[in-house]
Amino acid sequence: MTPKLKMKIPSISNDTKWILIWLAGISVFLVWDLIFLNKPALVRVWLGFGNTLLVSAISLTTALLLSFTVSSWITLSRWNERPKLARTGELFLNIFRSVPQIIGLLTGFLILTLLVTAEIMTGKTAILTGFGVTVGVVIFYEFSDMLLERVAWFEQTDFVSASRTAGVPDTHLLFIEIWMRNSLPHLINKLISGFGATIFLLCSIDFVLSVGLSSSVSPINFPPTLGSMLAQIDSKQDILSIGILFTDPFYFPSLFTRHLQGLSVAFLIVFTLACSFKIGNAFTRRHRL
Amino acid sequence: MKPLTFSADISVGSHSILSITDFSIEQGKINVLFGESGIGKTLISKSIFGLTDPDKLSIEINSLGYQEYLKTEQVEAFRKNGFFVLQEPSSQFNPSLTIQEQLNEADLNSDLTEADILSGLWQSDQWKSLLPLYPQSFRPSGGEKQRFLLAMALKKMDKLAIENRLSTETLFIFDEPSGSLDNGFRNAFLEQLISRYQQNRFTVLVITHDYTIIPWFKNHKSELNSNLSWLELAKTDSGDLQCNPFLPDEFISWQKKLSPMGLVKGVAVADLNSGVICHGRQLSFQSGTKPIESLKLKSGTLTYLKAPSGVGKTTVARLLLGLYHGENLQLSICGHEFTSRNTQVDWKKKIWGKKAGMAFQLADEALNPVSTVKQVFTALKNPKLKTNDQILDFLQPVFIKKLDESFLSGQVRYLSGGQKQRLNLMRSIASEPEVLILDEPLNGVDFRTIKMFTGILEKLLQNGTAILLISHNEDIFDKLSFKDNQIQLKADELLKENAFSTEKTES
After folding, report:
1. Any A CB within 8 A of B378 CB
2. Which CATH superfamily is domain A37-286 in?
3. d(CA B462, CA B460)
4. Domains of chain B with CATH codes
5. Spatial contact of B51 and B43, defined as CB atoms under 8 Å apart
6. Which of these, B150, B144, B143, lies nearest to B191 by C-alpha position?
7. Does the pLDDT at position B138 exceed 60?
8. Which of A288, B108, B444, B455 is most buried, taking the most CB atoms under 10 A from its CB?
9. Residue B79 Cα to chain centre, angstroms
10. Which segments in chain A show pLDDT lower than 50?
11. What gap in Å lies between CA A73 and CA B226, rounded to an integer?
12. B29 and chain A in contact, CB less than 8 A
C-alpha cells in the first residue's frame, strides 16, 4: 500500500495573512500601472505612495519618541514623589489631547507652509520630514495613553511594589519589565492603528491643502503624496468617471485603462486603510488585547 | 463502590495544558483534593462537571470529544443533581438579581427556607441585611459571597434529600470553599456539610490548599475516617498529572513535631508605633490581650502578626516598607528613622533592596510572568547574582530536583504555583535583608513546599534575619512562633466613608 501523501500547509496567523494580501494587492496594482499607466503619472502616483509611507514612518517614529519621553517622565516623577514634575508632564499631554487632531494638523501644516514660503525649509526631504513630525506630534498622545494605561494596570497589582521593594531599579522596571516584556503586542497594535491614522490624516490634510494655503505654496511645489495626488484635477476626473457606469455599465473595463491615475490613488488609499484595519483587528484577536 | 474515574487531555492549540489518565473520585465519600496552585485542579474538575467553555480549549474526557462528553447522561446528572461552588465567588452571582432572588432561583426555588443555613454560616443574623442587595464587586464582601454560594449548595442538598434524589451518584464540588473564610466560618460550613452527609451519603469533592482541614477532621469528625478520601494532584517528570492518595497522618505527625523557631528575644531592628493611621483606620498592636506601644521586629526572631482577614495585616507590612503613607507614623527600621513626612524616595534610597525585603502574597502578581528565571535575579543588579552559576547555587537549596541552565532560561509563567512562590521568596531574600516580611507565604503551595518553606525560615532565622510573618494559617504558625512574638493587630475605624469597605464587612 502506498501511504497517502498529505500536503501540509503552514498555518499563518490572520494578521500575517492580511499583510501578505496587502503586499500582493499593491504588487498587482504596480504591475498593472507599469503596463497601462503613462510614465509621468506612474512616477507621480508611486512616488506619492512612497512619500506617504515615508511620512507615516517618520510620524510613527516621532510619536514613539515623544510618547516614551512624556510617559516615562510622568511615571518616574510619580514613582519618585515629584508631583509637580508629574503634573507638568500630564499638562503637556493634556494640551495635545485637548486639540482636535485635524486642527492640530492644519496648524502644523500652516507653520510648514510659512516656513516653505519664507524659504527657511527647502528640499523635499525636509518638507516630508516636516509632514511626518507634524502628524507624529498630533497623534503621539494616543501612544502615551496606551503606555500609561499599561503602567496603571501593573500598578493595580503587586507587581510594581514587589519589584521596587526587591531592588529592581525604576528605569529597568518601567522600560524593560513593563513596556518591553509586557506591552510589546499593545505597542505593535498601536503602531498598526497609528499607521492607518497617519495615512487617513495625511490624505485629509493634503486634500484640504489642494484648496490652497498660499499663492506661492500649493500641492504642486509640495512633494507628492497620495492625498495631494487625489486632489489633482486629473485624479478627481478619473474618480468621477466611475459615475459613467450608472448610464453605461460596459464602460467598466475602460476605467482600468483610461482613468488609471485617479483609480490607482484611490485604490492605494482605500486598500491600505482597509488592510491596516484588518491587520490591526486580527492582531488584537491573536494577542487577546 | 466503583470510583468515578476520568482521563482528560486539555490543550490550547498545539500546547498541552493538562493530561491525566487516572483522576478518580470515590463515590459516596468526601474527597479532599490537594495540590499546588496552577496544577490544574480547578480546570479538570470544571471540565468533568461540564463547565469549561468548549470554544476556548480543546478537551477530551474519557476519550470523548468535549461536545460529545457534554451530551452524556453522566454530565446531565451532575448538572441536574449536583452543584459546583466556584473558587471566585463573584463570578457565580448575577448582578441584576438580589441575593434573596438568587437564593431561590431555578432549582433552588422550593418551600424550603435558607434561614437556618445562613444563620449557621454567619453564626449571627447579620446575613439578613445582605439579602436585598444586588451583588457588586465590593459588597457583599468576598467572604459573604462565598457563604451565600455555600448556602445555595447546602439548600440544594436539602431539596434533593426531600425528593430522595440525594445519593452516592450526586456530586457536589467545592472549589476552595474556605479561600475567603476564617477558620471559624470554614468550620461552620464543614459542620453543616457533614450533618447532611451523615443523613444521606453523597459524593463530595473539596478542592483546597488548606491542609489544616486534616487535623480538624481528625479531631472533630474521627467517625468519618472511612468516608474520607485524601487525594493529591501532582506532576510527573514527564509533565503529566497524577492523582495520588495523600497520607493525612504524614501532615499530622509533621504538624505535631513543629516547635517555635529562632530566638525568643533579639535586638530590635524595626519598630513601628501603635496608633499609626492608614486609610482611615488607626492600627494598634497587642501582645495577648495587653496593648503594646509598638510592633518590634528583632533579629533572629519570628514575629507572627495575627488578625481576622481584612483588618490590615498587609497594610502594616506596606507601612513598614513605605508603600503606604501613614499618619502619626514613628518607624525605625535598620537604623533609619521614618515619620509621616518621609516620602517613598527615602525608603527607596535606604531600605528597598538593601535592608528589608518582602515576599508578596501573590507570586503570580509579584513576578513578571514573561521574564525568565534568570532575568528575575539579573534585574536586581545584585553583584552576587550575575552569572548562571551564582543564581543556580542560590536557588538550588529550595528546589528538590537538580537545577540546570534550562531552568534559568524558562519563563516564570511556565513554573508551577509552588515554584513561583519559592522564586518570589528567594527574590525577596536575594539582597540578604535584615528585615524580611512574608505575606501569606503558604498561599497555593503543596505540602512538600510547606515543609521546604519551614526549612528556609529556620535558616534565615539562624542567620539573624528579623522575620515578620503574616498568615491566616494559625494552625501552623502558632506552633512555629513563640507566644511572646505573636502579636494581635487591632484596627479602629476613624472615617465613616470606609464603613462599607470589603475588609470591614468581612472582619
Report:
1. no
2. MetI-like (1.10.3720.10)
3. 5
4. 4-257 (3.40.50.300), 268-506 (3.40.50.300)
5. no
6. B150
7. yes
8. B444
9. 27
10. 1-2, 214-215, 219
11. 65
12. no
